[in-house]
């Protein structure tokens, strides 16, 4: 837990006594170039396609 916090990676201690870290937070800190190049898919619907079909 101390290592994560010293390196600026958010972590919490779970009820089971294990350290919990978000995978994306870890990857963003440890591999900054790959996180910046990876684009996320848009989650909004493409309504313009519906207008063309009708």
UniProtKB/TrEMBL annotation:
Biased composition annotated in UniProt, kind: Basic and acidic residues: 41-54
Domain of life: Bacteria
Region feature Disordered, mapped onto this chain: 33-54
Protein name in the entry: Uncharacterized protein
Species annotation: Pseudoxanthomonas indica
